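Study this protein:
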Amino acid sequence: MNARLARKLQRFAAVIVVGTLSGVAVGLTRSGSEPTSLVAGATYGLVLGFLLGAVELFLLEDWDWLNRLSFLVNLAVRSAIYAAIIIGIQLLQPGERVAGAPLSASFGDFWSGVAYGAGVSVLVNLGFSIANLIGPRAFMNFVTGRYHTPVEEDRFVLFVDIAGSTGLAERLGGIGIHRFLDRTFRLLTQSVVDYRGEVLNYVGDEIIVTWPERQGAVDCRPLRCFVAMRIALRKAASQFEREFGAVPQIRGSLHFGSVIVGEIGDVKRAIVFNGDVMNTAARLEELSRKVAGGFLASRAAMARFAAPPPFPLSDLGTLPIRGRVDGIEVVGIGAAA
């Protein structure tokens, strides 16, 4: 299954479950354990979760103009759309119809139902907005407390740098280079999703992507991800040329090793990755600027793949690297990859 579709379906299922459980909870608060009330509440929650999840994930997320609005304006527009759906659901009264209860003509019941639906939808919408702001996986890790205490994990780390961004910044200006980088990162992130990676951070003109060992080893996903990024940029070349007068070119590096992952900070909490693998990957990216093809992967990373790469690699031997006396064994990929 397509990775983007699989991700949407997982989130869709989560919204439906949350909506149904919320409806059951409301039924319990209203009438205790009375079966009719529980069935009606569950039905309202199921319908609400299904419709709001479908609209959010399969419609609103694909509206580029909406996603470019500020956080509060985006939230307000989404909430207005949600409100229209909620009022329609309340007017149809699916809960009472499924439970076999008499239809309510009370304005009090109608507006209390609207208030419940609005509360759930705002919370769900806020959750989606925060997840989009900090990343879905980071959001779930915060909620579950997975990295509340530091843990050690074996991970692939991919550094991707946009070549020539300094010169572009001088030509495009501050706002222009920001728009250029934003457009480029949005395009590159699609490949990250396709190959089930996790965006760790955007740092200046770099994007850092990571995979746990088990997920990254499948089908050489980190390597395929980088190549897919280059292909996506080539396909979008004419659009970039028209809008910015330049086409982004990327170079990168891949390394594998143990990292310490944990929450850090107080006023602004963040999940950070520390360890030699991060430093080595960054230094490999610096070295990639001097090799044909603009990409370096350590032998340590290559040894962890479950299958050979689907494209030819060149053995570059052992390269000297700052911080390692014995250097590091690396391979590269062709400029056309």
The CA atoms of residues 169 and 257 lie 34 Å apart. Residues 146-333 form a domain with the Alpha-Beta Plaits fold (CATH 3.30.70.1230). The two ends are 25 Å apart (CA to CA).
